[in-house]
Amino acid sequence: MDYRTSEGTAGPRGEDLLPASVAAAVKVVIVGGFGVGKTTMVGSVSEIRPLTTEETMTQAGVGVDDIAGVERKTETTVAMDFGRISLNDKLVLYLFGTPGQERFWFLWDGLFEGALGAVVLIDTRRLEVSFDAVGRLEERGVPFVVAVNAFPGAPVHPTAELRAAMDLPDSVPMIDCDARDRASSRDTLLALVRYLQSLHTVTPETP
Amino acid sequence: MSATGKAWDEGGPERLYAVDQNHGPQPSPPRPVELVSLIVARAEPEPGTAPEQAAVLRMCQFPLSVAEISAYLVLPVSTVTVLLAGLLEDGRVEVRAPVPAAELPDPELLQAVMHGLQNL
Ligand SMILES: Nc1nc2c(ncn2[C@@H]2O[C@H](COP(=O)(O)OP(=O)(O)OP(=O)(O)O)[C@@H](O)[C@H]2O)c(=O)[nH]1
Ligand SMILES: [Mg+2]
């Protein structure tokens, strides 16, 4: 491990300190394919300058040049942007924006465990880049809403068409957003919370 | 485990976001930290303290998540977890656990999140 002289001063800037009264945190994960606006959304609603955390993933090697009986392990570092929103003097929300390479971040178990839910960002010009995220959230049982990020020149499709293309059940909310806009990003998070609230009022029956 | 033999306060962690909660100081048994566990220093670094542990103690004068510590130290979360385990063992830091995972988040919690976002 290397030490830098700045080591002693590493830490939050004065304005980024949380009050001593903060007792617990919750988290929401922002997912979607590469370049759909995840980092932008984290940055637009965060009260702190977005930070980057990382984790080292060990994966059983996929047989490229496997020698029989020898299991190869691959180490990958996955970096994740995140931001923070103080909800009141006791509760704080962390927002994690996953990197584009989803096959790695779904290995990061601690990321989705305990998350309130997720926002799946989509770009209507490249819907397919977010398919994988939707599938994996469904597999894990993480509740999510889909936010259609408004890119200039992106074709406008009726919601029903987008739903069909993404094979989304009617119960999953789909909203328009502009990830660059703070109010719009906040409204997207509010839509997720309202959806979570609605899950309480329906009987959760497995089909 | 509770040495006093007191029953687990089942309603405890879930209710931390309630505004009217009145929490006295309570010793908590060490538990594993998570990405958004909040860490608060309870001691000053001493001359023998490992540099990274000293850095954690210095930056956690106020609550700070494991993710933030990882970001400021530029260390993987798993490395930070190991550093914290050493500090937790002898009570040099306190952990404030995240609101526990539940199939469906508590309505009161969702209400608090909703209000917080509306005030942005
Ligand atoms: N017009 C427009 N541009 C956007 C919007 N959101 C993001 N962008 C731009 O799109 C590009 C990609 O955005 P990022 O936020 O980096 O996307 P990302 O999902 O984090 O990308 P990866 O981390 O590489 O997967 C950037 O140049 C943004 O400025 C949006 O709502 N509207
Ligand atoms: Mg990004």
TrEMBL record, chain A:
Keywords (A to Z) from UniProt: ATP-binding, GTP-binding, Hydrolase, Nucleotide-binding
Gene3D superfamilies in UniProt: P-loop containing nucleotide triphosphate hydrolases
Gene Ontology molecular function, alphabetical: ATP binding
A Pfam family reported for this protein in Swiss-Prot or TrEMBL: ATP_bind_1
Keyword Disulfide bond: no
Keyword GTP-binding (UniProt): yes
Highest taxon, organism lineage: Bacteria
Family: Belongs to the GPN-loop GTPase family.
Full protein name: ATP-binding protein
Organism: Streptomyces hygroscopicus
UniProt lineage: Bacteria, Bacillati, Actinomycetota, Actinomycetes, Kitasatosporales
